[in-house]
Amino acid sequence: MTSHSTLLSRVENGIAWVTLNRPEQRNALDIPTLKALINLLDEHDADPTVRVLVLTGSGKGFCAGADVAEWADAESRGILETYGWTETAHTLMNRLHGFSKPTIAAINGIAVGAGMDLSLTCDFRLAAQSARFKAGYTSLAYSPDAGASWHLPRLIGAEQAKRLLFLDEIWSADRALATGLVSEICADDQLLGSAAELAARLANGPTFAFIQTKVLIRDGAQRSLAEQLEAEQAAGLLCGRSHDGAEALKAAVEKRTPQFIGR
After folding, report:
1. What is the pLDDT of residues 226-237, one digit of tens each?
2. pTM for the full model?
3. What CATH class does 2-203 carry?
4. Beta strands of the chain (E only): which ranges?
5. Strand 110-112 and strand 103-107: pairing?
6. In the prediction, which pLDDT does 74 show?
7. Higher-scoring residue by pLDDT: 140, 167
8. Where in the chain are the domains?
9. Cβ(82)–Cβ(89) under 8 Å?
10. Which of 34, 89, 128, 157 sits CB 3.0–4.6 Å from 188 for a disulfide?
11. Is the pLDDT of residue 73 over 80?
12. Pick from 121, 101, 123, 104: which is nearest to 212 by CA?
């Protein structure tokens, strides 16, 4: 177990567990937490023993978004537009979105503003029954600033995205599931167990192929079909030359379950 004052992290059986750890502030994101999380993501992405990452929050909330107290202090000092929260948050969102290995958000309690946006950058979102989602921007006469306007239309469609953003409704876990904002709902006391089960399945899989697939999906929206087919061919060659590719073929011939190592 490693820790920062506002983060907890451990790696077990190929799974990196990262927990936002400011429960009194509902895990709100101040600049030190943002920077610590960026550094931690870089460490886990470079660590070959990490094959999956799970992000969750301590206490009763996943993440309440930006730290309002920090914003208020910056406002009182006349530096709200220059003190760097938005730029640092954007770096974090890009890091997590570009994380090469599969990522899971285990959403316990509230996910508001940048906290909701943080979950949107993950590959999979599992929600506790008590989870609640709120964009939080327009109620403050503000527009999205941490990726919601990019992720939401792609995940739930433009109209539902506009409803969530314009009306700033609070969505229950059931509503989030119905719209496709999350892929699974769990009882509160089963959330981490369900996340662990999914993470284990991913960690035991051909994670090298998962990485290539993740890049194909992420970059494919910017390509024509012909360009995407070329990219798929190149990625397929890399997979075929990998240790896992050779192991999969050998296991198929020997009629046994393959043992993947992520390379």
Report:
1. 999 999 999 999
2. 0.91
3. alpha beta
4. 2-4, 7-12, 15-20, 52-57, 61-63, 103-107, 110-112, 124-128, 132-134, 171-172, 184-186
5. unpaired
6. 64
7. 167
8. 2-203, 207-254
9. no
10. 128
11. no
12. 101
